[in-house]
Amino acid sequence: MANLITLSRFPLLILILILLFYAGPTGQLACTFLILILILLDTVDGMVARRRRETSLLGSALDIAADRAVELVLWVSFASLGLIPLLIPLVVIIRGTLTDSIRAVASSHGVRAFDMSRAAWARFLVASPAMRTSYGVAKAVAFCTLALWLGLQNLGLETPAVAVIRFIALASSWVAVFLCVARGVPVLVEAPAFFRQYSSTPRQE
Q: In angstroms, how far is the first alpha carbon of the chain from the final one?
């Protein structure tokens, strides 16, 4: 069940893309709420997995894949729409490529992504509820307000309220990028020790 919830995020993401690019202001405004649902589903699948005891290596991999797809596609889309600098998706893509490559090696040895961090500071940045929640909230605010700003902008509205929404959208986008990089640092720092530990250990088939 948890994995099905995770997989359901992909068709919803496609619907959001269609609305953002082709549905006009009304569809873009609707994306504000659809994006919120898309992000909340990440919390729901985790709750279901824990309640039904469906946590697994596959579930962890699917969850990360869905999170990464949602994150990258939305950042690239909003950059393509001219709402954010291209630097934002580039930073996120480079960070994700590096950390996901390392985590793929960990997965081949039966180690789940969030179990890689050993040091207390690394566990805090990567897996603590405070950091995961902060990062999730920053992305949710950024994506939702970017969609809202896009819709209002295409309606031709230029009011102080729209200016505030624009500021919130851009500020939260940069906060999200900062947290994205911060949460990737422990993976890169601890990777050499992990590779030394498992360099002579056969992979789990």
A: 25
